[in-house]
TrEMBL record:
GO terms for molecular function: ATP binding; ATP hydrolysis activity. InterPro entries: AAA+_ATPase, ABC_transporter-like_ATP-bd, ABC_Transporter_VariousFunc, P-loop_NTPase. The lineage of its organism: Archaea, Methanobacteriati, Methanobacteriota, Stenosarchaea group, Halobacteria. Keywords: ATP-binding, Nucleotide-binding, Transport. This is ABC transporter. It comes from Halosimplex carlsbadense 2-9-1. CDD domains: ABC_DR_subfamily_A (cd03230).
Length: 253
Protein backbone atom coordinates (compact mmCIF):
# COMPACT_ATOMS: atom_id res chain seq x y z
CA UNK A 1 0.00 0.00 0.00
CA UNK A 2 1.40 3.42 -0.93
CA UNK A 3 2.10 5.85 1.88
CA UNK A 4 0.10 8.51 0.00
CA UNK A 5 -2.43 8.03 -2.76
CA UNK A 6 -4.80 10.52 -4.36
CA UNK A 7 -7.30 10.33 -7.17
CA UNK A 8 -8.69 13.39 -8.96
CA UNK A 9 -8.09 15.59 -5.93
CA UNK A 10 -9.61 19.01 -6.61
CA UNK A 11 -10.10 22.17 -4.56
CA UNK A 12 -12.14 25.15 -5.75
CA UNK A 13 -12.86 28.49 -4.14
CA UNK A 14 -15.82 29.80 -6.06
CA UNK A 15 -14.65 30.23 -9.64
CA UNK A 16 -10.98 29.78 -8.69
CA UNK A 17 -9.47 26.30 -8.94
CA UNK A 18 -6.56 25.97 -6.50
CA UNK A 19 -5.98 22.30 -7.28
CA UNK A 20 -7.23 20.35 -10.29
CA UNK A 21 -7.63 16.56 -10.53
CA UNK A 22 -4.40 15.65 -8.70
CA UNK A 23 -3.69 11.92 -8.93
CA UNK A 24 -0.45 10.59 -7.48
CA UNK A 25 0.97 7.62 -5.62
CA UNK A 26 3.92 7.94 -3.24
CA UNK A 27 5.47 4.60 -2.19
CA UNK A 28 6.75 4.00 1.32
CA UNK A 29 10.36 5.07 1.75
CA UNK A 30 10.14 7.75 -0.96
CA UNK A 31 11.51 11.26 -0.58
CA UNK A 32 8.93 12.86 -2.82
CA UNK A 33 9.25 16.50 -3.85
CA UNK A 34 6.28 18.55 -4.99
CA UNK A 35 7.74 21.40 -6.98
CA UNK A 36 6.17 24.56 -8.32
CA UNK A 37 6.07 28.34 -8.07
CA UNK A 38 4.22 30.13 -5.29
CA UNK A 39 0.46 29.85 -5.75
CA UNK A 40 0.67 26.66 -7.82
CA UNK A 41 -1.23 24.43 -5.37
CA UNK A 42 1.55 22.90 -3.26
CA UNK A 43 0.34 24.12 0.13
CA UNK A 44 -3.27 23.32 -0.75
CA UNK A 45 -2.20 19.74 -1.47
CA UNK A 46 -0.48 19.37 1.90
CA UNK A 47 -3.42 20.91 3.76
CA UNK A 48 -5.81 18.41 2.16
CA UNK A 49 -3.53 15.43 2.77
CA UNK A 50 -3.09 16.36 6.44
CA UNK A 51 -6.80 16.82 7.09
CA UNK A 52 -6.69 20.61 7.46
CA UNK A 53 -8.74 21.31 4.34
CA UNK A 54 -11.53 19.35 2.66
CA UNK A 55 -11.28 18.82 -1.09
CA UNK A 56 -14.10 19.83 -3.39
CA UNK A 57 -13.78 16.56 -5.28
CA UNK A 58 -11.61 13.44 -5.30
CA UNK A 59 -10.21 11.09 -2.69
CA UNK A 60 -7.01 10.66 -0.73
CA UNK A 61 -5.37 8.05 1.48
CA UNK A 62 -2.52 8.78 3.90
CA UNK A 63 -0.99 5.75 5.65
CA UNK A 64 -4.31 4.02 5.03
CA UNK A 65 -6.37 6.83 6.60
CA UNK A 66 -8.88 9.05 4.85
CA UNK A 67 -7.95 12.66 5.71
CA UNK A 68 -11.53 13.79 5.12
CA UNK A 69 -13.32 11.07 7.10
CA UNK A 70 -10.68 10.77 9.84
CA UNK A 71 -8.40 13.81 9.91
CA UNK A 72 -7.35 13.25 13.53
CA UNK A 73 -6.00 9.79 12.69
CA UNK A 74 -3.88 11.33 9.93
CA UNK A 75 -2.52 14.12 12.12
CA UNK A 76 -1.70 11.66 14.89
CA UNK A 77 0.21 9.42 12.48
CA UNK A 78 2.29 11.99 10.60
CA UNK A 79 4.67 14.87 11.26
CA UNK A 80 3.82 18.27 9.77
CA UNK A 81 5.97 21.34 9.23
CA UNK A 82 3.98 24.11 7.55
CA UNK A 83 5.78 26.94 5.81
CA UNK A 84 6.50 29.95 8.04
CA UNK A 85 5.24 28.26 11.22
CA UNK A 86 6.78 29.37 14.53
CA UNK A 87 6.61 27.95 18.04
CA UNK A 88 4.27 29.86 20.38
CA UNK A 89 5.91 33.16 21.26
CA UNK A 90 5.22 32.84 25.00
CA UNK A 91 6.90 29.43 25.39
CA UNK A 92 10.52 28.34 25.44
CA UNK A 93 11.58 25.55 23.05
CA UNK A 94 11.68 23.13 25.98
CA UNK A 95 8.15 24.07 27.08
CA UNK A 96 6.81 23.86 23.54
CA UNK A 97 8.35 20.45 22.86
CA UNK A 98 7.10 19.19 26.22
CA UNK A 99 3.64 20.35 25.18
CA UNK A 100 3.98 18.48 21.87
CA UNK A 101 5.07 15.40 23.82
CA UNK A 102 2.04 15.65 26.12
CA UNK A 103 -0.38 16.05 23.21
CA UNK A 104 1.14 13.03 21.46
CA UNK A 105 1.42 11.06 24.72
CA UNK A 106 5.13 10.40 24.18
CA UNK A 107 7.29 8.49 26.61
CA UNK A 108 10.79 9.71 27.44
CA UNK A 109 10.00 13.18 26.13
CA UNK A 110 12.86 14.85 28.04
CA UNK A 111 15.38 12.53 26.40
CA UNK A 112 13.82 13.18 22.99
CA UNK A 113 14.04 16.93 23.53
CA UNK A 114 17.68 16.68 24.52
CA UNK A 115 18.45 14.53 21.47
CA UNK A 116 16.81 16.89 18.99
CA UNK A 117 18.20 20.04 20.61
CA UNK A 118 21.67 18.55 20.25
CA UNK A 119 21.06 17.34 16.69
CA UNK A 120 19.68 20.68 15.50
CA UNK A 121 21.95 22.89 17.55
CA UNK A 122 19.64 24.71 19.95
CA UNK A 123 20.80 23.31 23.30
CA UNK A 124 21.90 26.76 24.46
CA UNK A 125 18.48 28.27 23.73
CA UNK A 126 16.24 25.53 25.11
CA UNK A 127 15.08 27.81 27.92
CA UNK A 128 14.96 31.06 25.94
CA UNK A 129 11.50 32.44 25.26
CA UNK A 130 10.65 32.01 21.59
CA UNK A 131 10.23 35.72 20.88
CA UNK A 132 13.95 36.12 21.63
CA UNK A 133 15.01 33.43 19.15
CA UNK A 134 16.24 34.15 15.65
CA UNK A 135 14.19 32.98 12.66
CA UNK A 136 16.68 30.16 12.09
CA UNK A 137 16.47 29.03 15.71
CA UNK A 138 12.67 28.97 15.55
CA UNK A 139 12.85 26.89 12.37
CA UNK A 140 15.09 24.38 14.15
CA UNK A 141 12.53 24.03 16.96
CA UNK A 142 9.76 23.45 14.43
CA UNK A 143 11.83 20.79 12.70
CA UNK A 144 12.27 19.09 16.08
CA UNK A 145 8.51 19.00 16.73
CA UNK A 146 8.02 17.48 13.28
CA UNK A 147 10.24 14.46 13.94
CA UNK A 148 10.17 14.11 17.75
CA UNK A 149 7.47 11.40 17.75
CA UNK A 150 9.27 9.35 15.07
CA UNK A 151 6.42 9.26 12.54
CA UNK A 152 6.37 7.00 9.48
CA UNK A 153 5.48 9.93 7.23
CA UNK A 154 6.39 13.62 7.35
CA UNK A 155 5.03 16.57 5.35
CA UNK A 156 7.42 19.52 5.13
CA UNK A 157 6.79 22.83 3.37
CA UNK A 158 10.10 24.62 2.58
CA UNK A 159 12.23 23.01 5.33
CA UNK A 160 15.46 24.97 4.76
CA UNK A 161 14.15 28.53 4.95
CA UNK A 162 16.17 30.70 7.39
CA UNK A 163 18.76 27.99 8.12
CA UNK A 164 22.46 28.71 7.74
CA UNK A 165 24.40 26.61 5.19
CA UNK A 166 25.85 24.22 7.79
CA UNK A 167 22.45 23.51 9.32
CA UNK A 168 20.92 23.15 5.84
CA UNK A 169 23.44 20.39 5.10
CA UNK A 170 22.70 18.64 8.40
CA UNK A 171 18.93 18.79 7.86
CA UNK A 172 19.35 17.41 4.32
CA UNK A 173 21.41 14.53 5.73
CA UNK A 174 18.74 13.81 8.32
CA UNK A 175 15.96 13.77 5.74
CA UNK A 176 17.92 11.35 3.55
CA UNK A 177 18.65 9.10 6.54
CA UNK A 178 15.02 9.27 7.62
CA UNK A 179 13.87 7.87 4.27
CA UNK A 180 16.74 5.38 4.08
CA UNK A 181 15.22 3.83 7.23
CA UNK A 182 11.97 3.15 5.37
CA UNK A 183 10.05 6.29 6.28
CA UNK A 184 8.38 8.58 3.76
CA UNK A 185 8.85 12.32 3.32
CA UNK A 186 6.62 14.61 1.27
CA UNK A 187 8.56 17.80 0.57
CA UNK A 188 7.03 20.93 -0.91
CA UNK A 189 9.43 23.47 -2.38
CA UNK A 190 9.85 26.00 -5.17
CA UNK A 191 13.63 25.51 -5.22
CA UNK A 192 14.78 23.18 -8.00
CA UNK A 193 18.20 22.78 -6.43
CA UNK A 194 16.71 21.42 -3.20
CA UNK A 195 14.50 18.95 -5.08
CA UNK A 196 17.36 17.84 -7.32
CA UNK A 197 19.72 17.21 -4.40
CA UNK A 198 17.27 15.46 -2.07
CA UNK A 199 14.36 13.81 -3.79
CA UNK A 200 14.01 10.31 -5.19
CA UNK A 201 10.96 11.47 -7.15
CA UNK A 202 9.80 14.95 -8.13
CA UNK A 203 6.41 16.08 -9.37
CA UNK A 204 5.58 19.55 -10.62
CA UNK A 205 2.37 21.51 -10.24
CA UNK A 206 1.52 24.59 -12.29
CA UNK A 207 -1.67 26.63 -11.87
CA UNK A 208 -3.17 23.90 -9.71
CA UNK A 209 -2.46 21.07 -12.16
CA UNK A 210 -0.03 18.17 -11.77
CA UNK A 211 1.85 18.28 -15.05
CA UNK A 212 4.90 16.00 -14.81
CA UNK A 213 6.86 13.61 -12.61
CA UNK A 214 10.50 12.59 -12.79
CA UNK A 215 13.17 10.74 -10.80
CA UNK A 216 16.19 13.09 -10.74
CA UNK A 217 18.48 10.04 -10.74
CA UNK A 218 17.20 9.13 -14.21
CA UNK A 219 18.39 12.36 -15.79
CA UNK A 220 21.23 12.27 -18.29
CA UNK A 221 24.58 13.26 -16.73
CA UNK A 222 24.63 16.58 -18.59
CA UNK A 223 20.94 17.38 -17.93
CA UNK A 224 19.57 19.29 -14.97
CA UNK A 225 16.09 19.08 -13.51
CA UNK A 226 15.48 22.64 -14.66
CA UNK A 227 16.26 21.67 -18.24
CA UNK A 228 13.81 18.77 -18.08
CA UNK A 229 10.96 20.77 -16.65
CA UNK A 230 11.50 23.65 -19.05
CA UNK A 231 11.35 21.23 -21.96
CA UNK A 232 8.45 19.13 -20.73
CA UNK A 233 6.09 21.40 -18.86
CA UNK A 234 6.60 25.09 -19.68
CA UNK A 235 4.00 26.51 -22.01
CA UNK A 236 5.45 27.85 -25.24
CA UNK A 237 6.85 31.33 -24.77
CA UNK A 238 7.04 31.16 -20.97
CA UNK A 239 10.10 32.54 -19.26
CA UNK A 240 10.31 30.02 -16.42
CA UNK A 241 8.88 30.71 -12.97
CA UNK A 242 10.77 28.26 -10.79
CA UNK A 243 13.90 29.62 -9.11
CA UNK A 244 16.98 27.47 -9.44
CA UNK A 245 19.98 29.54 -8.41
CA UNK A 246 18.76 31.21 -5.21
CA UNK A 247 20.17 29.86 -1.99
CA UNK A 248 17.71 27.53 -0.32
CA UNK A 249 17.68 29.57 2.86
CA UNK A 250 16.45 32.71 1.14
CA UNK A 251 12.80 33.55 0.74
CA UNK A 252 11.30 35.17 -2.30
CA UNK A 253 8.30 36.55 -0.39
Amino acid sequence: MPAIETEDLTKRYGDVTALSSLSLSVPEGELFGLLGPNGSGKTTTIEILTGQLDPTEGTASVLGHDPVADPLAVREAVGILPEREDPPSFLTPREYLQFVGDVRDLSGVDDRIAEWADRLGFVDTLDTISTDLSEGERQRVMLAQTFIHEPDLVFIDEPLVNLDPIMQAEVKDHMRDYCDRGNTLFLSTHFLEVAEQLCTSVGIVRDGEFVAERDPRDLDPDEQLLDYFRREVEPEGATGEIPAGRAAGESER
